[in-house]
Amino acid sequence: MKQRSEKIVERIIQEHKDQKKKKNNESATHEDFVDVLLKFQDRMTLEIFAAGSETSSSAVDWAMAEMIRNRRVMKKAQEEVRQVFNKKGKVDEAGISDLKYLKSVVKETLRLHPSAPLLLPRESINAWAIGRDPKYWTEPESFMPERFVDSNIDFKGNNFEYIPFGAGRRICPGISYGVLNIELPLAFLLYHFDWKLPYGLKHEDLDMTELFGVSVRRKDHLSVIPIAYDDLKINSQEG
Ligand code: HEM
C-alpha cells in the first residue's frame, strides 16, 4: 500500500517538474499547491544545507589549527581519542560521548571562532567579541579547553557570555547535529593521524589570521602533513 501511494506521489511530483520545464518557455505561468511546495522544499533544503555545512567545516578547520599550534592540547585530545577507540580499532559515533576533553576543545574553538560571529540575522549581537571579553573570560585570547571541562556552560544559550548558536526562540535548531558534525570528523582526524607542519614551520608560529564575513574563516588555507597512525604503530613495534 505504502509503495503504491509513494509511486503516485512520485508521479505527481515528476509531472509538475516536467510541466515546469515546459512552462519556462512560456510567458504566463500558473502555479498550484504542489508547485509552491516544491519551491519551498528546494529552498529549505538549500538553506539547511548551507546553515549546516560551512559552519561545521570552519569549526573543524579552526579546531585543527588551534591544536596544531597548541601541542599540549593536541597531545591530550589525541590520547583521549586513541584510548577510547583503540579497542575497537576505529572511530564510531557511539564512543563520541566518552570524549570529554575533545568536547571541551570544540567548545573552546567555538568561543574563539564562532562560525556565525554576528549571529545573523541578529546583526546587533557580536558573539565573536563576547567570547573574547575579558570581563567574562580569564586569558580570553588563550586556547584553553580546560575552562570548559568541569563547567556547566553549554550551547543552549543559557549563558549569555557563550552564545555560538545564539539564544532564545531563534536559537540554532541544528545544535546537536552541528556539534556532532565537528566532534566526529575531529575524532577521525586525531585517531588516524599525527599532524605536523610543512617546511619546518614552528607550531607556535602558525598564522591564525581571520577573514571576516558572514562566517569567520581562516585567511590562509591550513596546510598540514598527516602521518598515518597505523604506520606509527608498526614503527614503534619494530623499534
Ligand atoms: C557549528 C555549527 C553551527 C553553528 C555555529 C550555527 C550557528 C547558528 C546561529 C548563530 C544561528 C542564529 C541564531 C540566532 O539568530 O539567534 C543559527 C540559526 C540557524 N541554524 Fe545553525 N549553526 C550550526 C549548524 C547548523 C546545522 C547543522 C543546521 C541544520 C541542519 C542549522 C540550521 C539553522 C537554522 C535553520 C537556523 C535559523 C533558525 C531561525 O531563524 O529560527 N545550523 N545557527
From TrEMBL:
Keywords annotated in UniProt = Heme, Iron, Membrane, Metal-binding, Monooxygenase, Oxidoreductase, Transmembrane, Transmembrane helix
| Binding locations of heme | 172
Q: Which cofactor does it need?
A: heme
Provide the species name.
Cannabis sativa (Hemp)
Matches recorded under PANTHER family? OS06G0641600 PROTEIN, OS08G0105600 PROTEIN
Keyword Thylakoid on this protein?
Answer: no
Tell me which PROSITE patterns the record gives: CYTOCHROME_P450
Q: Which GO terms describe its molecular function?
A: heme binding; iron ion binding; monooxygenase activity; oxidoreductase activity, acting on paired donors, with incorporation or reduction of molecular oxygen
Q: What name appears for this protein in its UniProt entry? A: Cytochrome P450
Q: Which domain of life is it from?
A: Eukaryota
Q: Tell me where it resides.
A: Membrane
Family annotation (InterPro entries): CYP450_71D, Cyt_P450, Cyt_P450_CS, Cyt_P450_E_grp-I, Cyt_P450_sf
User: What's the protein's topology in the membrane?
Assistant: Single-pass membrane protein
By sequence similarity, the record places it as follows: Belongs to the cytochrome P450 family.
Output a single Gene Ontology CC term carried by this record.
membrane
Query: Which stretch is the leader sequence?
Result: none
